[in-house]
Amino acid sequence: MAMSNNFAVIFSVLALVPLCFAASGGGYLYPQYYDHSCPKAQEIVKSVVAKAVAKETRMAASLLRLHFHDCFVKGCDASLLLDSSGSIISEKRANPNRNSARGFEVIDEIKAALEKECPQTVSCADILALAARDSTVLAGGPSWVVPLGRRDSLGASLSGSNNNIPAPNNTLPTIITKFKLQGLDLADLVALSGGHTIGQSRCTSFRQRLYNQTGNGLADSTLEVSFASQLRSRCPRSGGDNNLFPLDLVSPTKFDNYYYKNIMASKGLLNSDQVLFTRNPQTMALVKLYAENSELFMEQFVKSMIKMGNITPLTGVRGEIRKNCRKVNS
Predict the structure, then answer these.
(1) Could you report the per-residue pLDDT of 30-39, keeping only the tens digit for each?
(2) Residue 196 annotated as binding?
(3) Which residues of 97-110 are buried (b: 16+ CB within 10 A; e: fewer)?
(4) Per the annotation, does 35 bind a ligand?
(5) Model confidence over 164-204: pLDDT tens digits?
(6) Within this chain, do residues 136 and 266 fall inside the same structural domain, yes or no?
(7) Among 17, 103, 229, 267, whose Cα sits 20 to 30 Å from the Cα of 330?
(8) Does 152 appear as a known binding residue?
(9) Would you say 301 and 64 are in contact if contact means Cβ atoms under 8 Å apart?
(10) Which CATH number goes with the domain that contains 232?
(11) Where does the record place it (predicted)?
């Protein structure tokens, strides 16, 4: 669904509004952070992301997801990007990320280009935030001004990744709690879940809905029957764990509001998607609202992405600017 002219104007105006957010460490995030130290930073990120998405459409969703999975663990500090070394146990080994999180090579390419242009200036955490925005735009979604100035962590948290990131099989109260712990409310939860309008998920992430949702050997009663049958054809009881399925069966590569329309038709792929419509009257109302009004969804998605990007970033003298996003500086 194309944005209306009025909606485009809204985001054009937003792009001109200076955003400044207080952050941990006594510093601030603001869009002009690299205007003097690395003026081509955003252009470089955008160029590499565009090339990666042109090569593989799915990469847009993968890069958006990296930012989400990073911010929910120790804040938006690029801890997710660290490989295991010395005392660091990589978050890539955590259940939500193992054989799932991807796009690290694209981040490496962006970092290499930025190090060549302006050495040890642009943080990996800011690269993740910019890549998420650029990926959304390339998929047909809204643009926004990204507050910048995050620094990179000196460590990772495997337990944080396992415990803090919402899982496909979590109950809605658990998901709500995980968002609340990050300072995110129900509107943020429903809007950010709308990121599932693009991307794919593995059979292993929703198999229980097809065969044994509540331990009674039956499929999830909130899953549309013909859709469930279609899914079972490529997601058997055993095997096929890594078979991929679109999170939005109508427009899987376009950033739009069909995700919400699918949920209302009982065709949400993940349990964590469908429960937004079946388990809570407030989230149900928001699903209906965003299904009916694409502009409102996009507007809230932008607000929630900026809010999520401001989860306890490191600023000032805290952390560092990594030379290589996969390891701390020596």
Answers:
(1) 999 999 999 9
(2) yes
(3) beebbbbbebbbeb
(4) no
(5) 999 999 999 999 999 999 999 999 999 999 999 999 999 99
(6) no
(7) 103
(8) no
(9) no
(10) 1.10.420.10
(11) Secreted
